[in-house]
Amino acid sequence: MPPTLSKPSGAAPASLVYITIGALMTVWSAIWYSYLRNNSSANSSSGYLCTGFLVTGIVLLAIGFSLGPIARWSRHAEMPPSEVTPSPNQETQQNAPRRV
């Protein structure tokens, strides 16, 4: 079996990592943002940091959700064409002993 077909793609675990980190960053940034709104402080840099973490979490979520379909499409591109690979039915006919 060619190495392309035997080695699974690493895109599925990477997609789960991106989605998990992005979701956690988004949730905790939203909690931090609500805290900053309820307890207004004179320090505006924490607001910028909170907004940066919130946008970063949303971007990581988008990357994670788009990585799954891209991995599926690339798996089809890595497969050899159907003209080259015999179907299982053709393979058994070629290997079967001939009866006389």
Q: What report would you give on this structure?
A:
By secondary structure, this protein is an all-alpha fold. It has one domain (10-95). Helix content is 74%, strand content 0%. Helix 2 runs antiparallel to helix 3 (45-78). The longest helix is centred in the middle third of the chain and has 34 residues, at 45-78. The radius of gyration is 25 Å and the shape is rod-shaped. The chain starts with a helix and ends in a 5-residue tail after the last helix. The relative contact order is 0.15.
Number of domains: 1
Shape designation: rod-shaped
> Major sheet, described briefly?
none
Number of strands: 0
User: What is the helix content?
Assistant: over 70%
> What pattern of helices and strands is seen along the backbone?
HHHH
Structural class: mainly alpha
Give the overall pLDDT as a whole number. 78
**Treating each run of at least 4 consecutive H or I residues as one helix, how many helices?**
4
First and last CA, distance: 33 Å
Per DSSP, what share of the residues sits in E-state strands of 2 or more residues?
A: under 5%
Rg for CA atoms = 25 Å
